[in-house]
Amino acid sequence: LIIGVSGTALQKNVSVAKPTKVELTCKLDEHSNLKNPQVTWKKGSETISHTSKTRNSWTIQLTISESSQLGSYSCILKGEVEVSATFHLQVPNIEGKERPIITYEGDLAVMVCKTEYAPMDWTWYLTNGTELVPINPFSQTNKFRTKKLSANVNRLEILKLTKEDIGVYWCEAAFRLGSSKKRFELKVLSIMAPLKPFLAVVAEVVILVTTIALYEVYSKKKEKEGEREFDQIEQL
């Protein structure tokens, strides 16, 4: 739905997991001041014709059978002002944790990927330099384990974490029209890491107590030396 305000450029993502027919419609708000606009549909920069129109809406019908037919489709309305709306046809995105996964040596790391539609297959990768190395949980049972929680949710578990497990992992969902990937960053801390702030505080307390004790010893020593000097003066 296009309001018709100058400079408006609406965006909408449309997930397409398999070959299908798609109908895209731009409808001008009935209260808009934009009257009888000239309407152009484009795929990227290429102009295409719309297949149907009513008084305030314009529609194109697409048959998506291969990945090259995905992309951005825009309707551009020109009148006293120019407004537009763009539909981004793409394979479904993967949802997952955005922040780095931080855990400790010996613990378990869990990564979960979820998609809107069920993919044909899931694959997990470990980044090695510039390459993505597939993870095979069947040959590395003591390190990796995968679980299919549902048709559109997959989970990777990394067991008995060590510093060597630090790195970037990817999950890939394969659809008939292409694939999507999701990035995960894993950080593994030493078991002593949580104790470092505590040990630092303990060290500061020890230094403070030692300083106070030494000052008291020094003060008493000076006090005794002063008493001896006073006694000597009295004797004189």
TrEMBL record:
PANTHER family: IG-LIKE DOMAIN-CONTAINING PROTEIN (PTHR46013:SF7), VASCULAR CELL ADHESION MOLECULE 1 (PTHR46013)
Name of this chain's protein: EMB protein
Keyword GTP-binding in record: no
InterPro entries listed in its UniProt record: Ig-like_dom (IPR007110), Ig-like_dom_sf (IPR036179), Ig-like_fold (IPR013783), Ig_I-set (IPR013098), Ig_sub (IPR003599), Ig_sub2 (IPR003598)
Xref: CDD domains: Ig
Annotated keywords: Membrane, Transmembrane, Transmembrane helix
Transmembrane domains' residue ranges: 198-218
KW Isomerase (keyword) present: no
Residue intervals of the Ig-like domain: 1-86, 92-190
